[in-house]
Amino acid sequence: MDLLELFRESEALLEGHFLLSSGKHSQKYVQCAKLMQYPDKARKVVAEVVEKVKDLDIDVIVGPAMGGIRAAYELGSQLNIKTIFTERVDNIMTLRRGFEIKEGDKILIMEDVVTTGKSSMETAKVLEDLGGNVIGIGCLVDRKVSQIDLPIYSAVELFFETYDKENCPECAKGTEAIKPGSRKM
Ligand SMILES: [Zn+2]
């Protein structure tokens, strides 16, 4: 099955002219929350990650808020493994709500999209400072641009080129870049 088709069907994968939060322009944009609206599609995409991690010894799955939460709980549900989440407080990734990591807990972090990997690594550090042992990163989409030292278990890999305004092919056509999230998308 072409999992990317599920992204397209749910308008989670858009093509056009986008201004990314990094300031770069691109011709594609992925918004996993659009896919995760649909239980059947969410289940199918996450099942691909399940196939890759089902033989790993995992004590707890951790989803960094916001994007990681839905993906993490779907994965935890399919694997029947305890799932918790981290969240930013004053921009610092934190474990709250009485969630605990035990010394030596084997942890799989689950994200929606791994781009730079910055948020995943920040989450890993928080969990390791608490005594956890992060064994890998699961994700719905690996954008294939991160340099993470941990194994990545993705449902789909989706590399797309990003451009500075000066050499953006869409800017050259004279269309205006849309900032995803600035309208209902
Ligand atoms: Zn552009």
From TrEMBL:
Gene Ontology biological process terms in this record: 'de novo' UMP biosynthetic process; pyrimidine nucleobase biosynthetic process
PANTHER family associated with the record: OROTATE PHOSPHORIBOSYLTRANSFERASE, URIDINE 5'-MONOPHOSPHATE SYNTHASE
Source organism: Dethiosulfatibacter aminovorans DSM 17477
HAMAP family linked to this entry: PyrE
Subunit description: Homodimer.
Location of the Phosphoribosyltransferase domain: 41-147
Name this polypeptide is given: Orotate phosphoribosyltransferase
Presence of keyword Magnesium: yes
UniProt feature coiled coil, ranges: none
Cofactor (UniProt): Mg(2+)
Transmembrane segments: none
Gene name for this UniProt entry: pyrE
UniProt catalytic activity: orotidine 5'-phosphate + diphosphate = orotate + 5-phospho-alpha-D-ribose 1-diphosphate
GO molecular function term, any single one: magnesium ion binding
EC code(s) of this entry: 2.4.2.10
Chain positions recorded as 5-phospho-alpha-D-ribose 1-diphosphate binding sites: 88, 111-119
